[in-house]
């Protein structure tokens, strides 16, 4: 095991060569906000919330997909980064239709928590009010695209942990959205095992249990965590 | 000593924020000693007065009346607080926006979804004309302080008012800005 030494926020830390900046920071109890990152599945650096400054580079790098290197000098919470992060959250709120007051995930939502963390008391951007759909064709779950932030955690958890790959992305830019199977109603998606991992992985109220009302959709991430840890340790996979 | 002139305004919202304001309970008595309530849906005053020191604005800007009033409120007030999620984000009031033009959702709500007496309200001069889009207050006029929440609970309102009564006007942070 090769160990690298680096500084994060002027603190000297050491990390394994294979670790990302995000992992190294978390090991050292240094908080870096994330949204598309989910413990146990691959990282894609999509949400840009974990961007950090690395001395010597004018480009900001996503901590979740950037490996540590010897002598790296990293800043995780500069004024510039705070400004960008707040802007990212504002963009997410302006892009979809996020109405916390009537959302199943009110009080249990990572987007809502991030807004508090970034000090977002209002959105300065123009709200888009897109026309998006709700799919309730699945017998137990539903997806409300109005609340989707396109983090693709559902796609990755379904593919990498459940191994079903029911979820995927379709469309480009403004019309990007998650789909089930061949862009068909979720209830008709044959590959879906109804395991509910997508629901547990979803950071907002986009994927929810039918019958849950405002504020009721608390996520059971501990179940997901158990599954990923068990998988990593090979506790239940017959090899 | 001149008392601080306080106003509260009700635009496109459910009045839940005003109900939450009344939840201040006995602190309202302390507040009454420090302020003069010069305009409010809780008081019978017809015209928004000049020289208001502090105003709490509940609700989004949804119709012509709201639009006219909020401009007048801005002109005549020193500190304007965007009070509750509808004022801050549009919230539930703005849920009609994705449906499109007012005609589309009026038809949906008052004709298609109605059980009896299906008709679109039409009383010129009484029922104000709806704007094409519901907008948060700060998209129309400058806002000094945002106090989100649906509704912001009494503790949040009190903390914000205490800050403002001390003459401080700064951004709220932490749990007092949580939406929903």
Report on this structure.
The complex is a heterodimer of chains A (239) and B (180). In chain A, 25% of the residues lie in helices and 16% in strands. Chain A has 239 residues and is an alpha+beta fold. Chain A has 2 domains: 3-77, Ubiquitin-like (UB roll), CATH 3.10.20; 83-232, Alpha-Beta Plaits (2-Layer Sandwich). The longest helix of chain A has 17 residues, at 79-95. By secondary structure, chain B is of the alpha/beta class. Chain B has a 5-stranded parallel sheet with strand order 2-1-3-5-7, sandwiched between helices. Chain B is globular, with a radius of gyration of 17 Å. The chains are: A alpha+beta (239), B alpha/beta (180). At the A-B interface, helix 3 of A face helix 4 of B.
Distance between the termini of chain B: 38 Å
How many domains of chain A, as an integer?
A: 2
Task: Determine the number of helices of chain B (DSSP H or I, runs of at least 4 residues).
Answer: 6
Order of helices and strands of chain B: EHHEEEHEHHEEH
Number of strands of chain B: 7
The largest chain-to-chain contact, stated as pair and per-chain residue counts, equals: A-B, 27 and 30 residues
Q: Tell me the strand order in the biggest sheet of chain A.
A: 2-1-5-3-4
Q: Which CATH architecture of the largest domain in chain A?
A: 2-Layer Sandwich
Structural class assignment of chain B? alpha/beta
CATH second-level architecture of chain B: 3-Layer(aba) Sandwich
State mean pLDDT of chain B (0 to 100 scale).
95
CATH class of chain B: Alpha Beta
Give me the CATH fold name of chain B: Rossmann fold
Q: What share of the residues of chain A does DSSP label as strand, in percent?
A: 15-25%
- How would you write the strand order of the largest sheet of chain B? 2-1-3-5-7
Query: What class would the helix/strand composition of chain A place it in?
Result: alpha+beta
